[in-house]
Design goal:
Keywords: ATP-binding, Cell membrane, Membrane, Nucleotide-binding, Repeat, Sugar transport, Translocase, Transport. By secondary structure, the chain is of the alpha/beta class. 35% of the residues lie in helices and 24% in strands. It has helices at 2-14, 56-63, 87-93, 110-115, 128-141, 157-170, 187-202, 217-220, 243-251, 305-312, 335-340, 350-354, 361-366, 381-394, 411-424, 441-456, 468-474, 496-503, and strands at residues 18-27, 30-40, 45-49, 71-76, 81-82, 95-98, 175-179, 206-210, 223-228, 231-237, 270-278, 285-290, 294-299, 320-325, 328-329, 343-346, 374-375, 378-379, 429-433, 460-464, 477-482, 485-490. The radius of gyration is 24 Å and the shape is globular.
């Protein structure tokens, strides 16, 4: 730790390699950034913290040449004012961004993805042999063994991220922006990523690290910059602020408890039951869900938690076995059929599976309950509008209008729209798959309160999560899955150690 502090101080004394000063950005009348500062030092990881909608992505888009700032200055190490008019200019300077949703060509190979857009020789040819040698050398330096002729879509999310990092290194990037890099990674994959980040630091690469997982910040970051509502709050050394202080500066208020107070009393009425579900990837799955309880599902990546519930709603083959809702045997042919019968699965992938991004908040919320909003098969606009207004207020969704496109919203507010859509269907059973993935700490607390409110209203709630603190803090019981089976249902002494013991 002492050596780390010496290295940090040494790099600080050298001064920033890039300095953003009083950066402002307006989108029409909306002031997205109101004078933000950011210092970037070589060989250091700078954590960029703030709630969804704080302006982190806008600032990173300015730095990577996607947006032009309305006013402000960017200075290089010689204190010369510079600008990036487009992505190419930023890349030429050495700035590279790795997005939360990997922007790759899924049907192309790893090597083609890495070198797409690279300059050709004077004769217009590309030396595949040279590209192959360079990529293999880079992957070896990263201690990775990824087949370079494999299609991107056949890689895991973690492997896709590593390919993006290799791509950045081949471009000789000296400033790499990582946006929520661990949101879809297991603990093991996260450790691999952190090792690679440590290697990059030793090679004097600067990392800008955006994350809502505050427990990661002291492990991987050296400095922290906090942004709130488009304003610069401050720059701090890691360890200078406690986690509670960080949260208070991010959200502008104290958050006393992350989770609602857990109630131990469970209604004995079984509202949902799964008996002996067995398929090509599931092994004799059985469990009961009680009215007013929160049942957690934990397990390592590949344990088939998500696949189990996608099977139950008709997206995957559930094989043999029985499913009962209020003691009545049921079978869902499709997700819409499940919704009609009071069983709602809230997907982990809100952008691809949960929301229609180019449609309005109003349209998205009402999609799950069109029948209730219709007369003789026609949707009543007044009812649809009122329902949207009610849910926007109830879920504290930040928006100028119910007609705003969902694509223009922050991740936290998109997640609230997804939950509003689920609640609007008046479900008997709600399944939340990774309910707070990519969501800031303030919105996370609000989502936990909404989940608890559903439980208190007698709705059976299932939470699938890779976040052990979330599972332990929210759930009355936890089903731990391993290799397509339930290894253990823990009802007492729900601890991280016990969950991990049965997951391994």
């Amino acid at each position: 730790m002492k050596n780390k502090e010496v290295l940090i101080n040494k790099n600080l004394q050298c001064g920033p390699i890039l300095k953003l000063e009083n950066i402002k950005k307006n989108f029409g009348k909306v002031k997205a950034l109101k004078g933000v500062n950011l210092n970037i030092f070589k060989g250091k990881v700078m954590g960029i913290l703030g709630e969804n909608g704080a302006g982190k992505s806008t600032l990173m888009n300015i730095l990577s040449g996607v947006y032009q700032m309305s006013s402000g200055h960017i200075y290089n190490s010689k204190n010369e004012s510079i600008t990036f008019n487009n992505i190419k200019e930023a890349e030429k300077y050495g700035v590279c961004i790795i997005h939360q949703e990997i922007l790759s060509f899924p049907d192309m190979t790893v090597i083609d993805n890495v070198f797409i857009g690279h300059e050709k020789s004077k004769l217009g040819f590309v030396s595949y042999k040279k590209q192959k040698k360079l990529l293999l050398q880079t992957l070896e330096e990263m201690s990775l063994n990824i087949p370079i002729n494999k299609l991107m879509k056949d890689l895991t999310i973690a492997e896709q991220q590593m390919v993006e990092i290799a791509k950045a290194l081949i471009k000789k990037s000296k400033i790499i922006i990582m946006d929520e890099p661990t949101s879809s990674l297991s603990q093991k994959e996260t450790k691999v990523l952190f090792k690679i980040i440590e290697k990059l630091k030793k090679e004097d690469c600067a990392i800008l690290y955006i994350s809502h997982r505050l427990e990661e910040i002291p492990i991987i970051c050296d400095l922290i910059t906090i942004i709130r509502d488009g304003e610069f709050i401050g720059e701090y050394k890691v360890g200078e602020l406690s986690e509670n202080d960080l949260i208070a500066k991010m959200v502008g208020r104290e958050i006393e408890d992350k989770f609602p107070k857990k109630t131990t009393c469970i209604n004995e009425k079984v509202i949902f039951s799964v008996k002996n579900i067995t398929s090509s990837f599931l092994k004799n799955i059985s469990f009961n869900l009680y009215e007013g309880e929160i049942l957690g599902f934990a397990g390592l990546v590949g344990s088939k938690r998500t696949e189990l519930f996608k099977s139950l709603i008709g997206l995957l083959d559930k094989g043999s076995g029985e499913v009962l809702l209020n003691d009545k045997k049921i079978s869902f042919k499709s997700p819409s059929d499940a919704i009609k019968q009071g069983f709602y699965y809230v997907t982990e992938d809100r952008k691809s599976e949960g929301l229609i991004l180019d449609e309005s908040i109003k349209t998205n919320i009402s999609l799950s309950s069109l029948k209730n909003l219709s007369v003789f098969g026609f949707v009543k606009p007044s009812q649809e509008t009122q329902k949207a207004k009610d849910f926007i207020k109830y879920f504290s969704i930040k928006t100028p209008s119910y007609n705003q496109k969902v694509s223009a919203m922050s991740g936290g507010n998109q997640q609230k729209v997804l939950l509003a859509k689920a609640f609007c269907s008046k479900p008997k059973v709600l399944i939340f798959d990774e309910p707070t993935r990519g969501v800031d700490v303030g919105s996370r607390k609000e989502i936990y309160d909404l989940i608890y409110e559903a439980k208190n209203n007698g709705i059976g709630v299932i939470v699938i999560s890779s976040d052990l603190a979330e599972v332990i803090g929210l759930c009355n019981r936890v089903a731990v899955m391993k290799d397509g089976r339930i290894a253990k249902i823990i009802s007492e002494d729900i601890t991280q150690e016990n969950v991990i013991k049965y997951a391994l």
